[in-house]
């Protein structure tokens, strides 16, 4: 794939209008393709899952649905090199409740690459609110007296004192998910 990207510009359709997600995509592709100019276009893409996904499977599906929606509905589909989506979710594990993200990337031929971020442990009181159908961003805004944290550092930024952020976690997950695009000969 990397050798097929002869153009100096790589065009990425991001299945979100959230600046955190668009910036994460730009950052990830800039790291993976440092000799290219990265052009990101945002696009609203429905996830087809709950606003607050509560399982790994639902979170993965949400990211994949958003990426597929972009692939199938972008007006200048043939001009795009990649279609990218990110979905944050929550699940309960052996160690307790945690939030994480799934990322999905489709290349211009429709090959799907999926990745996942690390877990951020959640306090039980936060998890209980999510079980009551609250969204993580809203709970965090209330808990930390912030406004629209989902478009800033997210729960990750708040609980790590900004040592990591929602954007940095999305970026890392995207970089890792792009490995097959860099070395397709090993992922056949």
UniProtKB/TrEMBL annotation:
Q: Which reaction does it catalyse?
A: ITP + H2O = IDP + phosphate + H(+); XTP + H2O = XDP + phosphate + H(+)
Q: What does the cofactor field's note say?
A: Binds 1 divalent metal cation per subunit; can use either Mg(2+) or Mn(2+).
Record-listed E.C. numbers: 3.6.1.73
Q: Does the entry feature the keyword Transferase, yes or no?
A: no
Q: Which residues bind Mg(2+)?
A: 79
User: In terms of domain of life, where is this protein from?
Assistant: Bacteria
Which positions does UniProt annotate for substrate binding? 16-21
Non-canonical purine NTP phosphatase/PRRC1 domain residues are 15-181
Keywords from UniProt, A to Z, are: Hydrolase, Magnesium, Manganese, Metal-binding, Nucleotide metabolism, Nucleotide-binding
The molecular function terms in GO held by this entry are: hydrolase activity
InterPro entries linked: ITPase-like_fam, Non_canon_purine_NTPase, NTPase/PRRC1, YjjX_NTPase
Q: Which NCBIfam families match?
A: inosine/xanthosine triphosphatase, PRK05074.1
Question: Which HAMAP family did the record assign?
Answer: Non_canon_purine_NTPase_YjjX
Q: What does this protein do?
A: Phosphatase that hydrolyzes non-canonical purine nucleotides such as XTP and ITP to their respective diphosphate derivatives. Probably excludes non-canonical purines from DNA/RNA precursor pool, thus preventing their incorporation into DNA/RNA and avoiding chromosomal lesions.
What is the protein's given name? Inosine/xanthosine triphosphatase
